[in-house]
């Protein structure tokens, strides 16, 4: 998708730097062969490597998709401790080797929000605004649920918000969403006509969708996660359309009562590689409660990650 022009546009040639761990170098060679065989006109080079210094050398954008997944019996602290090490190495490598104006670093590997915070901490010469975490998969899932409920194509649903953490405490919020029905845009609440569903089944389904995919596939989401990463980077790079917003995990300034200095998912509008939190949306008591719960989890994750760093 990246090499085909779906992210940086159909006129932007690119070189892909592909980083993996040493035991995967043979498999990566196969990926390189397949990329050649795709005959992609925009792909002007491929650099496969197991060395972060080579991988991050002069990159303009980075998709950080590799992380230690949670295994059975693992505590969140164990997961954080493994990931702090990975994202420390990648943050340091970005700081040292990436272009100084590297604008877009997207963290996909879980726990994505806190991994993004750790990565940014170890790349002090790169502005914090240039690190984001992916909640676009949750946004896409939420749009799909609303579209199915109303019976419209998914592209007709916009402005669904994911607040907070990419975890089961996230708050998928369709109270500001719009649905295009036969050319007329109406509020999702009017199209769905079931407030109870919007606050229970809808929220629950989106919060637990990642786990449901793992239970069905015996593996974590792959195709939908890759598509969401491309959607996230494309909108960040090319900009959102007026009056529409998307959700991204970004460094929090305390907007909407969220804790400051954690990577929190907000509705954002983007232009020329910069995001801005959309301000002034009404937040009711139910939403405030949901935002507080996911904010609390992010603060706990942050303090656990910091205790690993300081240990
Ligand atoms: C997803 O939302 O599909 C993944 O983040 C789930 C996971 O834990 O890998």
From TrEMBL:
Residues 135-306 form the Lactate/malate dehydrogenase C-terminal domain. Substrate binds at residues 70, 76, 110, 141. Its EC number is 1.1.1.37. One of its GO terms (biological process) is malate metabolic process. The keyword NAD applies. Keywords: NAD, Oxidoreductase, Tricarboxylic acid cycle. The active site is at residue 166. CDD domains: MDH_cytoplasmic_cytosolic. Residues 16-131 form the Lactate/malate dehydrogenase N-terminal domain. GO terms for molecular function: L-malate dehydrogenase (NAD+) activity. Pfam families: Ldh_1_C, Ldh_1_N. PROSITE patterns: MDH. The keyword Oxidoreductase applies. It catalyses: (S)-malate + NAD(+) = oxaloacetate + NADH + H(+). It comes from the Eukaryota. NAD(+) binds at residues 20, 83, 108-110. InterPro entries: L-lactate/malate_DH, Lactate/malate_DH_C, Lactate/malate_DH_N, Lactate_DH/Glyco_Ohase_4_C, Malate_DH_AS, Malate_DH_NAD-dep_euk, Malate_DH_type2, NAD(P)-bd_dom_sf. Belongs to the LDH/MDH superfamily. MDH type 2 family. This is Malate dehydrogenase.
């Amino acid at each position: 998708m990246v090499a085909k022009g779906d992210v940086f546009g159909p006129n932007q040639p690119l070189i892909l730097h592909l980083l993996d761990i040493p035991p995967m170098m043979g498999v990566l060679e196969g990926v390189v062969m397949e990329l050649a065989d795709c005959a992609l006109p925009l792909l002007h080079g491929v650099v496969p490597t197991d060395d972060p210094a080579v991988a991050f050398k002069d990159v303009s954008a980075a998709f950080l998709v590799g992380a230690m997944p949670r295994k059975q019996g693992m505590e969140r602290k164990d997961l954080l401790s493994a990931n702090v090490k990975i994202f420390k190495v990648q943050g340091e490598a970005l700081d040292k080797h990436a272009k100084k104006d590297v604008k877009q670093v997207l963290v996909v590997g879980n726990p994505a929000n806190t991994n993004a915070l750790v990565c940014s901490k170890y790349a002090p010469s790169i502005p914090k605004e240039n690190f984001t975490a992916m909640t676009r998969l949750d946004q896409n899932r939420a749009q799909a649920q609303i579209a199915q409920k109303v019976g419209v194509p998914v592209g007709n649903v916009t402005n669904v918000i994911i607040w907070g953490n990419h975890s089961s405490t996230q708050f998928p919020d369709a109270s500001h969403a719009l649905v295009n029905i036969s050319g007329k845009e109406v509020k999702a609440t009017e199209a769905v006509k079931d407030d109870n569903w919007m606050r229970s089944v809808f929220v629950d389904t989106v919060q637990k969708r990642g786990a449901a995919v793992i239970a069905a596939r015996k593996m974590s989401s792959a195709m939908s996660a890759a598509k969401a990463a491309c959607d996230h980077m494309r909108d960040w790079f090319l900009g959102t359309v007026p009056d529409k917003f998307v959700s991204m995990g970004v460094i929090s300034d305390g907007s909407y009562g969220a804790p400051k200095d954690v990577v929190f998912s907000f509705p954002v509008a983007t232009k020329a590689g910069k995001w801005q939190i959309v301000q002034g949306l009404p937040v009711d008591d139910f939403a405030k409660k949901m935002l507080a719960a996911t904010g609390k989890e992010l603060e706990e994750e942050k303090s656990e990650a910091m205790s690993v760093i300081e240990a």
